[in-house]
Amino acid sequence: MFKKVLISDDLDSINHGVQLVTESLGISEVTQVQYCDDAYLKIKKGIMDEAPYELLITDLSFKSDHRAQTYTSGEALIKILSREHPELRIIVYSIEDRPLKVRYFFENYKIDAFVCKSRKGMNELKDAIRQVYNGKLYLSPQIQNSLNKQSHLEIEEYDVELLRQLAAGKSQDEISHEFKQQAISPSSLSSIEKRLNKLRIQFKSNNAIQLVAVAKDLGII
Amino acid sequence: MFKKVLISDDLDSINHGVQLVTESLGISEVTQVQYCDDAYLKIKKGIMDEAPYELLITDLSFKSDHRAQTYTSGEALIKILSREHPELRIIVYSIEDRPLKVRYFFENYKIDAFVCKSRKGMNELKDAIRQVYNGKLYLSPQIQNSLNKQSHLEIEEYDVELLRQLAAGKSQDEISHEFKQQAISPSSLSSIEKRLNKLRIQFKSNNAIQLVAVAKDLGII
DNA sequence: GATTTCCTTACGGTTAACCGCAACGGTAGA
DNA sequence: TCTACCGTTGCGGTTAACCGTAAGGAAATC
User: Residues of A with CB below 8 A from B95's CB?
Assistant: First the structure.
C-alpha cells in the first residue's frame, strides 16, 4: 500500500473524513492541507527531502479567502503537478459528477481516479486508492460511462467560446465583430446564427436563453 | 451539554467529520442519517419513545438517488420540523454562504444556528453547538452581517418563477399565457417585459440570455 | 480538370424582444 | 372627496433573433 499520501480539501470536515479512509488502509504518513499552494509546496519539499508523496487526493473547488494563492483551484494544482511530476498518482475527490468534466480531467491531466463525493464516497475512495495502488484507473460507479460517450464529443472549443460570449451578454452581431477582430473563423453573423441553430437542435432548446441555461447545467460553460 | 443529537448530511465524509465534533464535546448519543426522510423518522421515533432528539445538525442540499423521498432538501425537512416540533434545536451546516439565503432561514424557520462549511467549519460548528445549548443563536463569522436587512434588492418568488420559465425555453408571450392560466399576477406581456427589464438592470445584464446566466451563477435558479 | 461536397457568407422575410408612452384602476394621504 | 402615486395593461416603433435560401470558395473525389 502507499506509504505517503497528501490530502487537499478546503473543508476541514471532508479532510477528516478522508483521513479516516487512509488510516483504515494502514497508510502511515498522511498529511492534510487546505490550500492548493500548500499542497504544491509539500509535494516539492517531499521530493527535495527524497521522501516524495506517492499519492495526492484533492478536491477541485477551493473557496478563496484572505490568503492570496498562486493555484486557486484543484485543476490548476493538478495541471502543474501532472506536468512537473507525472509519476505522482492523483485522485480527484469532488462533488462534481458531470460526465463532460470528468472526462476532461482524464484526457487532459492523466489523473488516476475520479471519485464523486456522495453517500458512499468514502467507500469508493477506499476502492479507488486500492485500484490506483495496483496501477489501475478508478471511476465512481455513477460516472463510469463518462469516458466512452461521444455524445458530448461534438462540442468544439469554438462552440464553447460562442456560448460564453452569449452568456456574457453579447449580441450575435457583437460576437461577430469580436471574432473578426480576433481572427476566429467563422466570424460572419450568418455563420454564428447557423452554429447556434445547430447547438439549439443538439441540446433540444427553444432559443438562445434555454441553450445557455442547459450549457450551464451540463458544465460546458 | 446536549445528550442526544441527530446528524443529517448526504456526504459520508462530512457526516464523519461532524461526528468527530460531537464526540469531542462529550455528546453521548449521536446518530447519523444520509436522507431527510430518515432524519424525520428518527426524530418522530425519538418522541414516541419519550427519548427525543434535542438537536438536529443538517445540510441543506441532498443529492437525489434511486430512493424516492418525501423530503428532498434540508429546507423541506426544517420546514416541517420547525412547525411540528418547535422545541427541537436546529443547526444548519451548509456550503451556502449567500446572505440572502442565510437570512431567509432565520426569518422563516427559526433555526438556531447557521454554520458555513469552510476551512474552519468544524471549530465553528463546535462553537455553534455550545452557543445553542446556552440558548443563543450562532452565525459563522463570514456571514454575521447577513441578518441586518439592508437589501431591498430581494428577489421575489415571482421573479424566480419568471427566470425559471425563461431558462426552460419559454417565450415571454408563452409565459404570459402560462401565468394567466395559473392566475399568477401580473401576467400581461407588458408587465413581464417590465419586470424582466427591472431584473436586467438589477443584475447588470445586457439581455435575457445574460440575465439567466447570472441567475444561474448566483444560484437563484 | 471536372464534379461533388462542405463550409462560409450574404440577403430577405418573419417572429420575438426591447423600449417608451399613455391609459386605467386601486390605494393612501391631504 | 380630491389628488398624487404606484402597479398593471395596452400599443406602436425599433432592434435583434430566427429561418430559409442561395451564391461563392476551398478541399476532396473521381
Answer: 11
